[in-house]
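Notebook entry, structure prediction.
Reason for the run: the old model in the group folder had no record of what sequence produced it. Starting over properly, with the input documented here first.
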Amino acid sequence: MSFDQIRLDRHEGIALLTLHRPDRMNAFTTEMMLEIVAALDECDADDGVRAVIFTGSGEKAYCAGADLGQGAATFDYDKRTDKQAILPDGMSASPVAADGTIDWSHPLIRDSGGRVSMRIFDCKKPVLGAINGAAVGIGATMTLSMDARLASDTARYGFVFARRGIVPEAASSWFLPRLVGIQTAVDWCFSGRLIPAAEAHEKGLVQSVHAPGELVDAAIAKARELTDHSAPVSVALTRHMLWRMLGAPHPMSAHRWDSRAIFARGRSPDAAEGVTSFLEKRAPNFTASVANDYPWFAEFEETPPYS
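New structure, fully documented this time:
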């Protein structure tokens, strides 16, 4: 598939997804959102892709936030000029009825940044961010559901929503406190101040900081470290288990998921190969396909009779 506002390149098993609006500091649009979702769909379906890395075009910005080209109406979704891109055929172009009531299930109510954040959350491949410059608004929040964030020493994060009269989006009220703690999340979101890469690293938002020219190579090296020696289906399952268990009310929830995942994986050729290759002191050759052999997680949602 071809894209206009992103680039999708492959580097020996690693997909590099580049936000590509350098003339607008890679500002976020509805079209960019739709292209990111489509690109991740493509990566999930391609067993040649082991991990996905996000970065931005140019040296100044990863993503400077929502494109403000619509001025004061930027965040008034009911007045969006790009409505049709996300509306099913025949649906009303406004969630607000003539009597002023609001249809809260209408597609225009749904936060576009959240569509990206949740698609990253659901990805079957590890997702990393190579944050090469300003990451503001959605440029910051879309990175929170990634598995790791590496930053340039020139990068700056900004959770600037309160300064724009809105609130954090992209499910960041769930992700951010889990990554940096509630006190830091409050500080960053209430103040809306810019956060240098060193502080983001100190608080745990960023895993490592690099010189600009070394950032993408460092992210690729990290992606290879995470995936080169592991079974792709096991990585996909583990990714979903770890993220979902962050909100589990009791360790029994993890026991239920673990039990079903271990049973499903234990019957696979990958499990036999993992043990055999270890005993034979050779590199494993895992053959299960993420695109075709990933266990359907709906099977894990029903509560088994454990007490």
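Summary: The chain has a mean pLDDT of 91.
The old model has been moved to the deprecated folder.
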